[in-house]
Amino acid sequence: MLIDRRTLLRSWQAIAATVAALAAIPAGLFFAFGAGSKGRAADPSDPSAEWIDLGLAAEVTEGPWKARRFRREIEDRWKKTVVDESIYLRRRGETIEAVSAICTHTGCLVQRISNRFACPCHKSDFDEEGKPTSGPAPRPLDRLETKIDGERLKLRFVKFRPGLDRSEPMAS
Questions:
Q1: Which of 102, 104, 74, 108 is nearest to 88 (CA)?
Q2: What per-residue confidence (pLDDT) applies to 64?
Q3: Using CA atoms, how far apart are residues 3 and 114, in angstroms rounded to an integer?
Q4: Tens-digit pLDDT profile for residues 13-71
Q5: Helix or strand or coil: residue 89?
Q6: Calpha distance 78→30 (Å, rounded)
Q7: Any idea which of 16-25, 51-60, 123-132, 142-151 has the lowest mean pLDDT?
Q8: 134-138, long-range: CB within 8 Å, 24+ apart, which pairs?
Q9: CA count, 13 A, side-chain hemisphere, 54
């Protein structure tokens, strides 16, 4: 049986279209379901959000804000990554407060200078309570939720999108 030229070209076009469609399926699934972390943005009010153990609550003494670094594990669909994070803690009576060390302007790390916080990147300054006093920071430093579980201090760590005038959680 002989195949004419027109039939042969149509057959190859159909085969090429099928191969291209099959090759596009993984890319389509990637864009449909994303490659991000297992959850969406962390919601501070979500009771199932992960609490991070920061050690003994008694180690946080009464007084000014103190820097604290900790490590957390971020898991996306392919790998686990260990990330160093920074916060500031202070005790006021029985309550332990936490504030993010991330500037609300562009996400640089703020530094504690005497009785204020300062961002070295774009010269935003924050008072003792984390409220902006000068510079381009659009909102106060973000407060983080803490709790004392037995003798342990737990933190619900959330990163917030910088540059906005409101606190908007973002994916880990």
A1: 102
A2: 93
A3: 87
A4: 888 889 998 999 888 887 777 655 444 444 555 555 689 999 999 999 999 999 999 99
A5: strand
A6: 12
A7: 16-25
A8: 135/105, 136/105, 137/103, 137/104, 137/105, 138/104, 138/105, 138/163, 138/164, 138/165
A9: 30
* Residue carrying the six token digits 């159909």: 14
Bridge partners (DSSP) listed for residue 62? 91
Rounded to whole angstroms, how far apart are CA atoms 141 and 116? 12
Say which CATH architecture domain 52-156 belongs to. Answer: 3-layer Sandwich (2.102)
Q: Name the helix (H) or strand (E) containing 32.
A: helix 5-33
Mean pLDDT confidence for 127-136: 95
What predicted TM-score, i.e. pTM, was given to this entire model?
0.72
